[in-house]
Amino acid sequence: MARPTLIAGRIAAENRRARHEYTILETLEAGIMLEGTEVKSLRLGRSNLAEAYAGQQEGELYLFNCYIPEYQAKTFFTHETRRARKLLVHRKELRKLLGAITRDGMTLVPLDIHFNDRGLAKVTLGLAKGKKLHDKRAAEKDRDWKRDKARIMRNKGGD
């Protein structure tokens, strides 16, 4: 069986709601400790980050509630679909993130899981602050205005 070619930056899973629900202040790329069948399942692009979050457990950073389905090929070794997965960050970054979470009331939201140019799975984390309902409405109104403005400019240019 031919091995599929690796595409650098290929997104395996994306959290599309995160930018709507939160204001992303800073992003960070972290490694993730996965089992073999989890990597195979991610390469097929069948995972879900919709309800996932990152947090502290025993002084380490973990990804909780990330759904990676079992690999469909019948194998002896399978993995738990929603287990806590350890995230790999530098100690200085870990202290900074944990300080922001506890002190400033921020949240670590996984934005996507992707494969880098070496074929390693990475998680893009966003240090985020939750949006209020009026902030969401203002963002939607601004987005709609930009879309309408682009449409008007496009139509004016065609005359």
TrEMBL record:
CDD domains: SmpB
GO annotation, cellular component aspect: cytosol
Stored SUPFAM superfamilies: Small protein B (SmpB)
Keyword list, A-Z: Cytoplasm, RNA-binding
MF GO annotations: RNA binding
PROSITE patterns linked to this entry: SSRP (PS01317)
BP-aspect Gene Ontology terms: trans-translation-dependent protein tagging
Region described as Disordered: 138-159
Cross-referenced PANTHER family: SSRA-BINDING PROTEIN (PTHR30308:SF2), TMRNA-BINDING COMPONENT OF TRANS-TRANSLATION TAGGING COMPLEX (PTHR30308)
Name of protein: SsrA-binding protein
Organism: mine drainage metagenome
Lineage per the UniProt record: unclassified sequences, metagenomes, ecological metagenomes
UniProt gene name: smpB_8
